[in-house]
């Protein structure tokens, strides 16, 4: 499993926003991002709507390659969320991280290949702590892992993703149901893809 020793930090200035946040500021090495009320990323499935205005700070990701994003999971309103995005286009993307759903913090992922899906698992013990999400892309798949603090990474998802299509990747957040969400991102890094699934 790749660790921080084999990843290289990406400067916040290297990315471009898919949708500008309400406010962005740097505090030491951290990036503070204020999400717009109603911002979200989703296509069709079950809800019947398309939202493509989540705040994602993206830069090109090598293929194969991996991206890691660390942030403080210090939020608690319905659907508050933060993590990382891999994006090939409006209909081909993946977001993974933590989200408040039904009153609990959940770790999960949305994979969108024309239509979105969603998987979550409760992680209430992660609330208020530093979360790192990692996505490793190789061949026709993306492997998503996450951890809290310095605990071992947990496998969240192995998802299909089009092979050979250029992608951009980086941190994201959004606030579908309220104003005032501020996410403190701690680190953005890239490195080699995982050598093995297990």
TrEMBL record:
Organism field: Geodermatophilus nigrescens
Cross-referenced PANTHER family: REGULATION OF ENOLASE PROTEIN 1 (PTHR35332:SF2)
Any Pfam family hit: DUF1349
InterPro entries assigned to the protein according to its UniProt record, in alphabetical order: ConA-like_dom_sf, DUF1349
The protein's name: DUF1349 domain-containing protein
Entries under SUPFAM superfamilies matching the protein: Concanavalin A-like lectins/glucanases
Gene3D superfamilies per the UniProt record, alphabetical: 2.60.120.200
